[in-house]
Structure formats: C-alpha cells, structure tokens
Automatic annotation (TrEMBL):
GO terms for cellular component: membrane. Its main location: membrane. It comes from Caenorhabditis briggsae. Keywords: Membrane, Transmembrane, Transmembrane helix. This is Protein CBG24830.
Length: 451
C-alpha cells in the first residue's frame, strides 16, 4: 500500500525549515564577510607575523577554489547520501570557520576556508536537491522564494548583531578605522559559531519524505562515477554554457557586495564617525531581499514563469542601479587601503548606504530566483548537475575577483560587472525561451497520450 499524498502544508514546512537552515549558517558567513578583511587587517597591524594583511581576500579566493572542486563531486555525493544529510554535513563545515577566530592561526584560517569552500558546494547541492524533492512544478517558484525570504532574515539579524557589538565596543583610534579584534570581536564570532550549530540541529530535524508528484525524487540513480561523468558532460551542455554569464556574474557581484564594498566603506576615512555603517548596510540588503522574495512569491502564483524574463529584467536593472550608486559615492582606491580621497559626486551617509542595500537586495533576489528556477527546469534529466555547475561557475567568478582584488580599483568593478549583467540577461533570455518551448511540447505530448 502506497504512502498517503503529502499536503501543501507539508511543502511549506519543508521550505520554511530549509530557509531557517540557510538563515542559521549564513548569518555567520555573510556577516563575517562584511568585516573579514578589516578584521584581518587589524590583526596584521597588531601582529604582522600572525597573518597576512590581505589574507581576507586571499582566504576567500582559496575558499572558492575548493568550492569549484567540490561542485564537481557534490552531485555524486548527493546521489549517494541524499539531500538531508548533505545539508547536515555542509552546516558542520560552516561551523568550522568562526571557530578559528578564538585562536587566530594562519594555517587553521586557510584550512577552515578550504572546509568552508567544500561545505558551500555541499550546501547548495543539498539545497537544490531538497527543494526539487519537496516541490512540484506548480509550487517550485513559490517555495524557492519562501525559503529565500526566510534565509535572508540573516542579514537583518546581522544588522542587529553589528549594532549591538558596535555599541558595546570602545571607539577605535582615529588613525586606524578598522574593526579591532578584541574580546568583543571574539564574542561576535562566537555568536556566528552558535548560529551554525543551530543550523546543524535544524537540518537534522528537517522532514526527509519527498512530496507527492515532486520534481525530482530522492532516489539513488547509477553509481558515484556515473554521476561524476554526467557532471563533466553537463559542463559543456548548451544551456549551461549560455547560463555561464548569469552564474559567473552572481559570483563576481556577490563577492563585491559581501566583501569588497564593505571593506571600501570601512577604509574610507570620511566614514569614521559613522560607526553603524556595518549594521545599516546588511539591514538594507535584508529588507530588499525579503520584500522582493515575497513580491515574486505572489507574482509567481498569478503569472506562470514570472521567474524567467520579468524577474531577470528587474534583477539586472536594480543591480546596475546599485553599482551606479556605489560608483558615484565611493573613493576609487578604498578597497585597498585607508583613503582620504573624495568620491565622484558625494560621500556616504546612513540613508544612502541603506538605499544601496535595499536596491542591491531587490536585484540580488531576482537574479538568484532566476538561477534556482532555471536550474530546476532547463535540464530535467540532470537537475543535480545543473545546480552544481551553476555554483561552480559562480565560484569561478568569485575566485577570479578575489585574486585580483588587491590591484583592481573600484570603478573597474562597478562598470565591468554592470556590463557583465547585461550580457548575462541576453543569454538567459535565450535559454529561458528554449526551456518554455520544451515544457510546452512536453505538455502537448502528455495531452495527446491521454487522448
């Protein structure tokens, strides 16, 4: 006798728990990225022999190299152990990173970055696998954005954490506008570690049963080596090559917003008196992400394929607008060193940084929704590979950016990534149209078979 059909309420529970797990592990990683280079710079200034002053950038580059390698094998691991347990393993890897800031050591720092990179690959593979096994074609767009909106609450929590830590900490020296690593800093990373542990518990408790008529069943298919071969062939699939520009721009843009721009804010001497910038910025991003995720959820219920062309246009426009706002308000050399240079038009203020964050959050949510939905639908026979390759190409973009970060002026980022976004939109439209035509033909064939 078969199992009883699952309900919409069960789907929502799965989406909510997936989103809460994302919130738990990302509150540490995303928040840490906002201040990582400043923290490393501060430690190096006090003890130059402990760690390189650019280890924040180079460590993240190492992380993305392991991320890329992990993406090649994560579909095979998913096939062997299933999405739930791969999510648990990824949360353990995320917990290893903040733990290292209780005893700063260069070797452990780079080792934890390697673990983090592999955990990143596992997490997004598990995320995609869990979402497709706990959603139907009718509910995938809605579920993706419900989980995403809950996950992005991590940015609002980060804002609260930074505001609390800033109010507790003593003001830094006017000669060094860095986030000094003191007991308060260790408390901050302790909170991040605790959040990661909460993520482990959440994924352990998450429901494992697939929903009725799910997009992709949790069932082992073939061997580990066979799945790896599928990943290799999917790398050069037409759809994946067309989507390369979208996946890679998600890497370059997210790295800019999570690390490069926050560092630029901290290194701008004119911002010294604005001690709450690190709290205002993620607050704006979080509000933008959550607002847009809820908006897309409602629009997807009313308009099929809203996460294709409409969301992509919105994502491109708002992302380019955010880069323009940074371009005119931030000194060109601020990503590299403390600077007293003037911006092109005007400097930062709390309101303007908040506005940049909201604009960025709206654009980023649209782009990530497009990526999640197209990966679930463009390659029906190789969905796990599609999710993995999307992250591999994203990691490639991030890795490229971080290795060049010590020498690239700000304006190269803002102009170059904006052009990259336009190219990504054009090629995304090509793949989206072909996917829509493929689904239309499949629906017609099913109707003919019923007749």
């Amino acid at each position: 006798m078969g199992q009883p059909p699952t309900t919409r309420r069960y789907e929502l529970l799965c989406a909510i728990m997936l989103g809460f797990g994302h919130l738990s592990i990302m509150v540490g990683y995303d928040s840490g990225s906002f201040v990582l280079e400043s923290v490393i710079h501060s430690i190096n200034e006090r003890n130059p022999d402990v760690i390189s002053k650019y280890a924040g950038y180079y460590g993240q580059a190492v992380m993305y190299i392991l991320y890329m390698i992990g993406c090649m094998f994560s579909p095979s691991i998913l096939n062997e152990v299933g999405s739930k347990w791969i999510l648990v393993a990824s949360a353990i890897c995320f917990a290893s990173f903040p733990l290292g800031f209780f005893f700063v050591n260069s070797n452990y720092y780079y080792f934890s970055q390697m673990l983090l990179g592999f955990g990143y690959a596992l997490y997004y593979q598990g995320n995609g696998g869990y979402m497709t096994s706990h959603s139907t074609r009718k509910t995938i767009e809605s579920n993706v954005n419900i989980a995403w909106s809950i996950g992005c609450v991590c940015l609002i929590i980060s804002s609260g954490i930074f505001a609390g830590v800033t109010s507790m900490a003593h003001a830094p020296s006017p000669n060094s506008n860095f986030f000094f690593f003191s007991r308060i800093g260790k408390l901050l990373f302790g909170v991040f570690f605790g959040a990661s542990v909460l993520g482990i518990v959440n994924f352990l408790a998450a429901p494992g049963k697939d929903v009725t008529d799910c997009i992709q069943e949790t069932k082992k298919k073939g061997t580990f080596l066979g799945s790896f071969k599928q990943t290799c062939t999917a790398l050069v699939d037409r759809s994946m090559l067309e989507l390369f520009f979208l996946f890679s721009v998600l890497g370059t843009s997210s790295s800019f917003w999570l690390s490069i721009f926050p560092t630029a804010m901290n290194f701008t001497v004119a911002n010294f008196e604005m001690t709450y910038l690190c709290a205002i910025y993620p607050l704006g991003i979080g509000i933008g992400e959550i607002f847009m995720a809820l908006f897309i959820t409602q629009m997807s219920r009313r308009h099929k394929d809203f996460c294709f062309q409409p969301a992509m246009i919105l994502g491109t426009v708002f992302s380019i607008l955010a880069f323009f706002m940074v371009h005119v308000s931030t000194p060109y050399d601020s990503p590299h060193k403390p600077t007293r240079e003037d911006a092109l038009w005007f400097g930062h203020s709390y309101f303007f940084i908040f506005l940049i964050g909201v604009t960025l959050g709206i654009g980023d949510c649209c782009l990530n929704s497009c990526r999640s939905v197209i990966c679930a639908l463009a390659m029906p026979d190789r969905r796990a590979q599609a999710f993995s390759i999307s992250k591999l190409y994203q990691a490639l973009g991030s890795c490229f950016l971080f290795f060049l970060s010590p020498i690239i002026p700000l304006y190269v980022y803002t102009i170059g990534i904006s052009v990259h976004l336009i190219i990504a939109m054009i090629f995304f439209f090509i793949t989206a149209r072909r996917t829509q035509n493929m689904e239309k033909k499949n629906d017609e064939n099913e109707k003919n078979e019923e007749i």
